[in-house]
Amino acid sequence: MSAPSAAGQPPPMVKAERVHKSFGAVEVLRGIDLEVRAGEVCCVVGPSGSGKSTFLRCVNHLEKISAGRLWVDGSLVGYRQRGDRLYEMREREVAAQRRDIGMVFQRFNLFPHMTAAENVMEAPVQVKGLGRAAARERAALLLERVGLADRMGAYPAQLSGGQQQRVAIARALAMEPKLMLFDEPTSALDPELVGEVLDVMRGLAEEGMTMLVVTHEMGFAREVGDSLVFMDDGLVVETGPPRDVLAAPRHERTRAFLSAVL
Amino acid sequence: MEAAGAGPGDGLKKGTAADRVPPEAIRAVPVRHWGRLVGALVVLALLVLLVRAFAGADTIQWDVVGEYLTHDTVVEGALRTLWITVVSMALGVVLGVLLAVMRLSDNQVLSGVAWGYIWFFRGTPVLVQLFLWYNLALIFPILDLGFYRDEMNDVMTPFLAALLGLGLNEAAYMAEIARAGVLSVDHGQTEAAHALGMSRTRTTRRIVLPQAMRVIIPPTGNEFINMLKTSSLVSVIQYEELFRAGNIISSRNLAVMEMLLVVTVWYLALTTVFSVGQYYLERYYARGSQRALPRTPWQRVRTNLGTFRTRSVVRKEETR
Ligand SMILES: Nc1ncnc2c1ncn2[C@@H]1O[C@H](COP(=O)(O)OP(=O)(O)OP(=O)(O)O)[C@@H](O)[C@H]1O
Ligand SMILES: [Mg+2]
B185: helix, coil or strand? Predict the structure, then answer.
C-alpha cells in the first residue's frame, strides 16, 4: 500500500500519520503528523526530550513505531501490508529500505578503524557490491565536495569535529540516498566549526536533496528550511514556513521555546 | 603610529625581514637524574651477583644443560608443547567467540547455556578436567556416536584428552574476553552501519569485531602465553610435551636441575617469541585509535640514539 496522496502527484518523501512510540510505559511520541515533499528541507526544533531524535530514528526504522503509519517515498517503513494485515519486514528488506535514506548523527559515529576514504567506501563496496577502485574514485569526489580532498587517508581521530562530520555526510551521500536525516549535526561542534558543516548542508539543499533536519540552528532553519516543525512532548505543536513560525509563532509553547533559544 | 601604537600584535602583522628569521633553537643541558642512576647501579650489581652464583655453582653441570638444549627428545617435546598450545588455543578462541555471541544473544536458552558452560569450566581446576577427560572410559567404556563406535580407551588418547581439557577450559575464559571486547564497541557504530543498509552479520564482521579486537588481543596474548605454560600440566596424562620430555631424560641421566634449566630456557624462548608477535598484532589493531601509531621497539631505539647524539653535541659545544 502506498501513502495516500492526491491523484497524479508524486507521494511525499516522508509522511507520518499519528505516529506513536513508547519505551515501556513511557510514551515518547504521542501522535506525530508530518509531511516532507521531495526536494524539501524540513527543520525540526523543540526542547530536549521532546522526541525529535526518536522520530528521526523511526523514519529509518532504527526504532519501531508502536502505532500509526509512517511512509518513506510511498512505502511503509519496516512493514509490508497485505489486505489489512501488517507483516514485519525481514532484516534484508529493512536494510534495503535504509540504503535510500542517509543519516548523519550528532556524534558523527565514523568508523574509527578506517580512514576517511574507507569510511565513505565501506557501504558502496559491502552493500552495493561496487568495485574498490570505482568506490575509491567516488569517495574522492564526495570528499572533495565536502572540502576534504586532501584528508582522504586520515583516520577520524586525526580530524577535527567539523571535518569528521563532513566525512560522515560524505559517507551517507555515497549510497546516493533520496532522503537525508540529520540529528543535530552541529551540536557536538565548537562554535567556529559549525559554519563549515552548515555550508555543506546548504549546498546539498541547493542541489535539491530532500532533508529532514533536527537542529538548534535557527539561522539555518530560516534561510535554508522550506518548513519548520516545532515539537514538544511527543507532539507536533506548530508547523509552517520557517520565517512565519519564527517571526510570529501562533502557540504559547512555541513562543516560550523560541524566546528561550533566540 | 610606529612608536605610539606598536603593540605585540602590530609587530607580527608588518614584520620586517629580521622578525621572520626563527629564533635560535634551544640547546639546553638535559636534567640529570642521579637517584635513577644509583638505583640502576644497585640493581645491576645484584643481577651480577645472581648470575655469578648460578654460573659458579659447580653442582650444576653446564655442559649437560648445553648438550640437552638441542637434544631430539627435548626439541620434540618443545614442538609438542607448541602444537598442543596452538590447537587448544584455536579451539578455545573459536568456541569462546561462539559462546560470547550466545551469551549476548536475546535468546534466553542460548545465553543460559553459555552461562552454564562458563560457570562449569571456569569453576573447576584444569588439572581435574584433564583427568576427567583422560579417565572418561571408566564411565563410558564404549564411545557410540551412532555413525561411529569404538573403545573409549582407543579414542581418548593423551593428545585428545589434553586438547579437550585445555581447549574447553580456555573457551570459557575466551568467551568472557570476547564478550568484553564486543561490549566495548560504542552502540553508535552499529547504528551507523545499520543506517547505511549493512546487515547484522556484515556489521559484526566489518565494524564491531575489528574494533573489539583492540580490547580482545592483549588478554588473548596473555592467555596464549599462559597456555604455553599450563600445557605442562598435560604431562600428568602421559602427553609427551616439553616438561615430560625433560623429566624422562632426567630420570635416566639423573641431572634433575640441569634438565629443569633446559626446559626453562625453552619455555622462555617460546614465550618471548609470542610476546613480540603480540606486540605487532596490537600495533596493527591500534590503527585509527590514536593520532599516531605506537613506535616499534626498533624505532624507539633509533630515536633514543638520536637524543643521545644531540646530548653529546650540546656537551661538545659547551666545552668549545
Ligand atoms: N531507548 C530508549 N529507552 C527509553 N527511553 C528513551 C529511549 N530513547 C529515548 N528515550 C526517551 O525518550 C524521550 C525523547 O528522547 P529523544 O532523544 O527523542 O529527545 P530529543 O528531542 O531528541 O532531545 P534532545 O534535544 O536532547 O536530543 C526522552 O525522555 C528519552 O529519555
Ligand atoms: Mg536528540
Answer: coil
What is the least distance, in Å, from the CA of A92 to any CA of chain B? 7
Global confidence as pTM: 0.78
Given a contact cutoff of 8 angstroms between Cβ atoms, the answer to whether A21 and A66 are in contact is yes
Residues of chain A in contact with residue B211, where contact means CB-CB under 8 angstroms, are 111-113
Contact A110, B208 (CB under 8 A): no
Rounded distance between C-alpha atoms, residue B53 and residue B66, angstroms? 18
Nearest-atom index, ligand 1, CA of A106: 27
Per-residue model confidence (pLDDT) at position B320: 47
ipTM of the complex model: 0.93
Per-residue model confidence as pLDDT tens digits over B33-87: 888 889 999 999 999 999 888 887 778 888 888 899 999 999 999 999 999 999 9
In the beta sheet, which residues pair with residue A239? A229
CA atoms within 13 A on the CB side of A139: 25
CA distance B170 to A248: 68
The shortest CB-CB distance from A99 to any of B197, B200, B202 is to B197
Between strands A179-183 and A210-214, the pairing is parallel
Q: How far is it, in rounded angstroms, from Cα A3 to Cα A75?
A: 7
